[in-house]
Task: structure prediction
Amino acid sequence: MLQPAFTIGSAILDLSYLIAAVLFVIGLKMLSKPDTARAGNLWAAAGMLLAMITTLLLHKDPQGLLIPFRNVMVILLVISAGTVVGWIVARRVKMTAMPQMVSFYNATGGAASGLVALMEYGNSGNTSLLVTLLGIAVGNIAFSGSMIAYGKLDSKIKDWFSPVMKYINLFMLLFIVTLIVIVMLPGVKGDVARSLVYLLFFVSLVYGILFVMPIGGADMPVVISLLNSLTGVAAAMAGFIYGNQAMILGGILVGAAGTILTILMCNAMNRSLLNVIVGAFGARESIGTNSGINGVMREITVSDAGILLNYSQKVVIIPGYGMAVSQAQHVCSELDRLLTQKGVDVRYAIHPVAGRMPGHMNVLLAEAHVPYEKLVEMEHINPDMGNVDVAMIIGANDVVNPAALTDPSGPIYGMPIIRAHEAKNVIVIKRGMGKGYAAIENLLFYNEKTRMLFGNARDVLQKLVEEVKTM
Amino acid sequence: MKEILEFIFVYRHEIFIIVLAGFLGIEVISHVPSVLHTPLMSGANAVSGVIIIGGIILVGHTDLSRLSAQLVFGIVAVFFATLNVAGGFVVTDRMLEMFRKKKQKQEHQTR
Result:
């Protein structure tokens, strides 16, 4: 990397990168507060636009030449095409398809980083070999991993798990590290090194696929935030190649944000990151312990459930992935409004890993016009659960399983849960008798206070709405 | 050993930025309420599209008169990165728009 000579253009370019970097920081800071979030997003976008424009107009190659006019036109053409496509898709996509959309855009970012790093490999002036190789590997893993995550969230790809995968994945990871080390060796040059780099490119793609393949269900939020963080790191690596501070800072910021979310998600399940990546829930191998289950599930009719809700003072709704699957958020919000009009205090208890991406339930309920002040985080609602008349669980399972508190031998022991069992009454809306993602029995369903309402969440809620309307 | 130290010396500025940006990122994002997990992730995702700068530099200094891998893959990279940036920011804005509308609505109701 050569130090460019001082010119006014270069100085302005560097200054614009500094401003862009500051805008990224301010934007992300504002994004983490509800009142300023929307403006924050726009500030970050403005920073990006600024950096793009000044790069196009002012960037110089090592010989001191600006980007030729023809190239500027080509780039503008490609950017316009990408903007139109990205914009239209982002505008048109249904809010319920948000998780897959985020995954898809994450994949494109990873792919871009992998390609840029690959093309910069061997370019004169690029002396940062290690970073280039890391950029290729990380970018590609983020790309293919995110595409698989996209497929899974869109129900195009099923979870595919086999105990051998653990060892294959470990081997692949070691293989990638070995490849990087070999290419770095002083004796490896020319065509040999070049072929090894291409091999690295493809092996990373395959590893991304294999790494996300066995992970599914409740572990998706962890994987998605991890992939997000990887894309950031890949962009930062590419920034390193160019000595570009805006890219490095932007990429590392995203990497850090993704890492924090990943840790939050892991904590919410009381599992380590390694356990999520390698384990794919050990419960799959041993179908949980059925200790302490004696008793039967008791059903309730829709009209009895309606009466129960209507004459309650405090109702807490606990949504899970089942609500997203059956698209029950709108009718749920309708029921909430009806009950609220009748003077019932209705709130929602949100478990951090409910759904398939971080904050999934919040987006879903926001789409159904539920005010976000009604959405209460797990740790804030738990102390009050004893005063709640009815806890209504819609398509959630493991996040309310008291076995997490009481059964030290169970696979979810130690995971923080919403203490639905402390409420005076519990209504569980559930499609069938099946188990949750962790494949263990839910002690709550056998609790004396619990009544089951079997059926598709949307249909059941629709009937409940009609029932409550007549009262 | 000498190589490692040399690497650190040559790239000391970049390494500084990486380490400090890491701390900054953790500081800036910590304590984010779960309501904002998705928009924050999505917004951060859009910021990671900053790789578009790399794409612009790559294609910008490529010879257009002949078809090279660098030209083709560079253009693909710019296109993908643009999808990431444009799509990412627009999707995030849509999500946050929903959150905001609700708030105003509720204010009307409580009046």
Chain A touches chain B through 113 residues (CB under 8 Å). Residues 306 and 468 of chain A are 6 Å apart (CA to CA).
